[in-house]
Specification:
Layout (H helix, E strand, L loop, with lengths): L15 H15 L7 H12 L4 E4 L6 H11 L4 E5 L6 H5 E6 L4 E6 L6 E5 L6 H4 L1 H8 L1 E4 L2 E4 L5 E6 L12 H4 L4 E4 L5 H12 L18 H11 L6 H15 L4 E3 L3 H17 L7 H12 L4 E2 L1 H5 L4 H11 L5
Parallel strand pairs: 1-8, 1-9, 2-5, 5-8
Antiparallel strand pairs: 3-4, 6-7, 10-11
């Protein structure tokens, strides 16, 4: 008598604690390829937990592209890189209708946005018309062509890079598009000891194009992200902490150096990142310290400075430091 065929069992979805352990292990995995950018990795993870997009800013050569590729590998997510150039067209980003001679019909050819993590490299080097092609993608997570919406894969996030020092041939992102990025992560030049470690890495044969040879492997996946997002949604926020977030946002609007302060959407974004950071820290409730930890990456790109303030060397981080210093912290 034949034995019945065994149907392979589907593994149970990860619980919140195992998801937290997997995402915590992500830092160690990324460090195999990227040296000394722990805060940037944390910013990327927080954004993914909040279903948000990330703007990465840093001078050339600080591993912005390598960081995105390594995070995608460690999370077992599909990623595509799109180099933004002055001649890039909107259809090159979203996809377009192509005429098929065999069927005498138009068929849709998917663009690079149909992925999990879209690396929009040097996003400020393409004209506003092409930048605007990402507006629907970032807000609705879909592409509409010929009146038909097409959903993007889940999870989906835009990870865009830009160079802060080159201005010739660039097109600064408008405020409406900047506001669609949940966080803006800055990648500074590494300190001496980290730079020595980077050179030692390369002297030992590290190849940025071969992450597998560097030992980078998947330590988490989409299921872990889904479990983590469900847990983040349960993080409790006391009314006092909500009031603290609102007071910080309102204080940016009355600062003399600021032309346009943080909007209510910015305050909502800070609430989301605060809850994600609290959960990653192992707590089911948010504290004012969580708000402080995420205030700069969440709000720095939502502040428009007066020209005279910029001429005096004031930037949005300076404004946020002042605001965090004067707004009373709830007990």
């Amino acid at each position: 008598m034949r034995s019945p065929l065994k149907v392979p069992s589907t593994p149970p979805p990860p619980d919140a604690e195992s998801a937290r352990r997997a995402l915590t292990a992500l830092r160690h995995e990324v460090a195999k390829a990227v040296v000394g950018q722990d805060s940037a990795v944390s910013g990327l993870v927080v954004a993914l937990l909040c279903r948000g997009h990330v703007l990465l800013e840093g001078v050339p050569g600080v591993a912005k592209t390598l960081l995105v590729r390594t995070v995608a590998t460690a999370l077992s997510l599909d990623t595509k890189r799109l180099q933004f150039t002055p001649d890039l067209m909107p259809g090159d980003v979203t996809g377009s209708l192509v005429y098929d001679n065999r069927t005498s019909e138009f068929t849709f050819r998917e663009g690079p946005v149909f992925t999990n993590l879209l690396l929009a490299d040097e996003i400020n080097r393409t004209p506003p018309k092409t930048q605007a092609a990402l507006l629907e993608v970032m807000e609705e997570r879909q592409v509409s062509v010929d009146g038909q919406p097409r959903r993007l894969p889940s999870p989906f996030a835009v990870l865009a890079t830009q160079n802060p020092i080159e201005h010739e041939g660039t097109y600064p992102l408008p405020e409406a598009q900047l506001d669609r990025f949940l966080v803006k992560v800055t990648l500074p030049l590494p300190p001496r000891e980290d730079e020595v470690r980077i050179l030692a890495h390369h002297a030992a044969g590290f190849d940025p194009g071969n992450l597998a040879a560097a030992g980078v492997s998947a330590v988490a996946g989409p299921a872990d992200l889904a479990a983590a997002r469900a847990a983040v949604a349960q993080v409790q926020v006391r009314p006092e902490v909500l009031g603290y977030i609102v007071d910080l946002a309102r204080a940016t609007r009355t600062t003399p150096a600021v032309h346009l302060g943080v909007s209510p959407r910015g305050a909502t974004a800070l609430l989301a990142t605060t809850r994600a950071w609290a959960w990653l820290s192992g707590r089911s409730y948010a504290t004012p310290d969580d708000v402080k930890a995420l205030a700069r990456p969440t709000l720095r790109h939502r502040i428009s400075l007066r020209p005279e303030a910029e001429q005096d060397g004031v930037n949005s981080d300076v404004v946020l430091d002042q605001v965090l210093a004067i707004v009373p912290v709830p007990r």
